[in-house]
From TrEMBL:
<dbReference type="GO" id="GO:0019557">
    <property type="term" value="P:L-histidine catabolic process to glutamate and formate"/>
</dbReference>
<dbReference type="Pfam" id="PF17392">
    <property type="entry name" value="Urocanase_C"/>
</dbReference>
<keyword id="KW-0520">NAD</keyword>
<dbReference type="GO" id="GO:0016153">
    <property type="term" value="F:urocanate hydratase activity"/>
</dbReference>
<comment type="pathway">
    <text>Amino-acid degradation; L-histidine degradation into L-glutamate; N-formimidoyl-L-glutamate from L-histidine: step 2/3.</text>
</comment>
<protein>
    <recommendedName>
        <fullName>urocanate hydratase</fullName>
        <ecNumber>4.2.1.49</ecNumber>
    </recommendedName>
</protein>
<dbReference type="InterPro" id="IPR055351">
    <property type="entry name" value="Urocanase"/>
</dbReference>
<dbReference type="Pfam" id="PF17391">
    <property type="entry name" value="Urocanase_N"/>
</dbReference>
<keyword id="KW-0456">Lyase</keyword>
<feature type="domain" description="Urocanase N-terminal">
    <location>
        <begin position="85"/>
        <end position="118"/>
    </location>
</feature>
<feature type="domain" description="Urocanase C-terminal">
    <location>
        <begin position="455"/>
        <end position="661"/>
    </location>
</feature>
<dbReference type="InterPro" id="IPR036190">
    <property type="entry name" value="Urocanase_sf"/>
</dbReference>
<dbReference type="InterPro" id="IPR035085">
    <property type="entry name" value="Urocanase_Rossmann-like"/>
</dbReference>
<keyword id="KW-0369">Histidine metabolism</keyword>
<dbReference type="InterPro" id="IPR035401">
    <property type="entry name" value="Urocanase_C"/>
</dbReference>
<feature type="domain" description="Urocanase Rossmann-like">
    <location>
        <begin position="229"/>
        <end position="452"/>
    </location>
</feature>
<dbReference type="Pfam" id="PF01175">
    <property type="entry name" value="Urocanase"/>
</dbReference>
Length: 691
């Protein structure tokens, strides 16, 4: 068993660690089919071997070549460390700086078996769940890499153990380029993932470039070292469902209402817990029996069945009694949608009120979406043996799924795209999702940003989070208390009704999160807050560290899926209609601006959520250590991190964003934003164009 000291000592070469190969009994990434030429295979092998001195290359070359042949990528299984992978208390890391120790804490948290793709159990004991593909360094989303191979992990830990306050570690798509001189105010770590020249940023090119070891798909928080386990997506799903009920059904109480969706993986599995928290009936389909059974054992699924008859029967009972229920259906969601149509056609009764989809449809042909025509095992086999036929079946399945949803939507049923590229891939498959007269980012059904969360983003609210690096639950309890007090004081001081509603939802969330024991791995919390709330919470936490109420530094972060962090025309920026939804200036400016204003580390990614080539997104980590300098960095950086996106939404014509940015300028003389004028006379525009 390795120690943290050994883990920070560089690549283990003399002697080489034993090659234990692929571990049996744990999930592994699907076999990739990059289609490399003989020359490209040689290049991939050369790229992998350059991490190692010549005297060990002869031994490593054959096994690396075999990995490439068998799995489509060189993961370097020999170097998978023999250590309990978890976020250790920050003082245990052998580092020269607190910032570096905090980053190591976050990296190991991303790879922790209890965090990556984890869901906590129903009791005080958290049920471990291996990372989605632990030996392939995939945290979530099917292909969300922390690193491309294990050599990169070892070298990154080594560099972090040596870094000073006047150096910056530079990361190229998982590859630690090295330590470079900088300043104390500069980031300690700068990450870029997947920064491929736009004309070559296709899925086909990605498969080759990843196999060559020169780029990787970091999803959002996998490759930026900011993943905190399931509570992030649980929280977002809770808020989405609450606001969907308000918008579509005109209600606050979801008792007796039915929500149908798919997916019980590390992200999508949150839907089961969210359904229970909001008090509705959630029916979630999952083709992977192992995933479904784990969610059931963990207490997130209350009941499971592999019978459509039983599923419909139980749904009817719960609906009539207004039970709170999370019901897992072991089967394909297309079959479930088609059965709901049959019930409608034979009884006249629409049994579903709200619906969505959380398959990994950003990666539909490599394990993210399973076609209804095949069993789970049949699909896995065909995916590797005949990708072209598999793709055809996936697209036929998407067409059938949309057809069923369209029939149900003729009644009082509301469907939204959950930002997983479902409608985008359905459109590419030829499904009937077109919206007449719409712009390129609009479909027959809205994305959850367009209808549900978009106005929340426009007011500056987004998924703000923090991690207590002491690992002590008591520290997290203190931060929960501080955050609740900050929001309650803001309400008492007087805020707009729409802002008050969001603050109240998040106060409720903090209490529910503690009650439902949503923490796994590091002691982390997430809530949706606006600029004022984020800054006030950060200041309160920093002061608590200074006074000794919190025992160790706290890392502030957020999901990339936020107000300013992501340009994604089919998700985060899908409600921007001035034509700039396909432009990535906001995300890039956010990355640079955070670095200039005091972030401890910053990350910029291609891909994430919607898929490779479809989005540019970025994130940050900011270490609070109780010093006045940390407070100043938090004030500057968090203000920019929110106001950048609000100003962009203001300029695109969003009235709520306009109001928020005007108010912020009144309160902060340092903020001066160009405000757009109304252009409302359509007749003038038409006449001008005729001329």
């Amino acid at each position: 068993m390795s120690s943290l000291q050994a883990l920070c000592s560089g690549l283990p070469l003399r002697p080489l660690p034993k090659n234990r190969g692929r571990q049996a009994g744990v999930p592994h990434a699907p076999v990739r089919t990059p289609g490399l030429s003989p020359a490209e295979k040689q290049l991939a092998l050369r790229n992998a071997l350059r991490y190692f001195p010549p005297d060990v290359q002869n031994m490593l070359a054959p096994e690396f070549a075999q990995e490439l042949q068998l799995y489509g990528h060189i993961y370097m299984y020999r170097f998978c460390p023999d250590i309990e992978m978890r976020a250790y208390p920050v003082e245990q890391y052998p580092c020269r700086t607190k910032a570096a120790a905090a980053i190591m804490h976050m990296i190991m948290n991303n790879l922790d078996p209890a965090v990556a793709q984890a869901l906590p159990g129903p009791s005080s004991q958290m049920t471990p769940r291996l990372p989605q593909f632990p030996q392939e360094l995939v945290t979530y989303g099917g292909n969300g890499q922390v690193f491309s191979n294990w050599a990169q992990f070892w070298l990154t830990m080594f560099y972090l153990s040596k870094i000073t306050e006047e150096q910056t570690l530079v990361m190229y798509s998982g590859h630690p380029l090295g330590l470079f001189p900088s300043s104390r105010s500069a980031p300690r770590l700068i990450i870029t993932n997947g920064m491929v020249i736009p004309n070559y940023s296709s899925r086909t090119e990605y498969e080759k470039l990843f196999a060559l070891g020169v780029t990787m798909y970091g999803q959002m928080t996998a490759g930026s070292y900011c993943y905190i386990g399931p509570q992030g997506i649980v929280h977002g799903t809770v808020l989405t469902m609450l606001n969907a009920a308000r918008r579509y059904l005109g209600i606050e109480d979801l008792a007796g209402k039915v929500f149908v969706t798919s997916g019980l993986g590390g992200m999508s599995g949150a839907q089961a817990k969210a359904a229970v928290i909001v008090g509705c009936i959630g029916v979630i389909a999952e083709v992977d029996k192992a995933a479904l059974e784990k969610r059931h054992k963990q207490g997130w699924l209350m009941e499971v069945t592999d019978s459509l008859d039983q599923c419909i029967k139980r749904l009817r009972e719960a609906r009539k009694k207004k039970e709170v229920l999370s019901l897992g259906y072991h089967g394909n969601v297309v079959a479930l949608w088609e059965r709901l149509v049959r019930e409608l056609d034979t009884t006249g009764e629409c049994l579903v009120d709200l619906g969505s989809d959380q398959t990994s449809c950003h990666n539909p042909f490599n394990g993210g979406y399973y076609p209804v025509q095949l069993s789970f095992t049949e699909a896995q086999s065909l995916m590797a043996s005949n990708p072209a036929v598999f793709k055809d079946l996936v697209q036929e399945s998407l067409r059938r799924q949309v057809s069923a949803i369209n029939r149900l939507a003729e009644k009082n049923f509301f469907f939204w795209d959950y930002g997983n590229a479902f409608l985008l891939e359905a459109q590419r498959a030829g499904a009937d999702v077109e919206k007449k007269g719409a712009c390129r980012t609009e479909f027959r059904y809205p994305s959850y940003v367009q209808h549900i969360m978009g106005d929340i983003f426009s007011q500056g609210f987004g998924p703000f989070r923090w991690v207590c690096t002491s690992g002590d639950p008591q520290d997290l309890a203190v931060t929960d208390e501080l955050a609740t007090s900050v929001l309650e004081e803001a309400i008492a001081d007087g805020v707009k009704a729409s802002v008050k509603l969001q603050y109240m939802d998040n106060i409720r969330w903090i209490r529910e999160a503690a009650r439902h024991r949503l923490v796994v791995g590091s002691q982390a919390r997430i809530l949706y807050s606006d600029q004022k709330g984020r800054v006030a919470i950060a200041v309160a936490i920093n002061q608590a560290i200074a006074r000794g109420r919190i025992k160790a530094p706290v890392v502030l972060s957020r999901d990339h899926h936020d107000v300013s962090g992501t340009d994604s025309p089919f998700r985060e920026t899908s409600n921007i209609y001035d034509g700039s939804a396909f432009c990535a200036d906001m995300a890039v400016q956010n990355f640079v601006g955070d670095a200039c204003r005091g972030a401890t580390w910053v990350a910029l990614h291609n891909g994430g959520g919607v898929g490779w080539g479809e989005v540019i997104n970025g994130g940050f980590g900011l270490v609070l250590d109780g010093t006045p300098e940390a407070e100043q960095r938090a004030r500057l950086m968090l203000s920019w991190d929110v106001s950048n996106g609000v100003a962009r939404r203001c300029w695109s014509g969003n009235r709520k964003a306009y109001e928020i940015i005007c108010q912020t300028m009144q309160e902060n003389s340092g903020l001066v934003v160009t405000l757009p004028h109304d252009v409302g006379d359509e007749q003038v525009l038409q006449q001008a164009l005729q001329l």
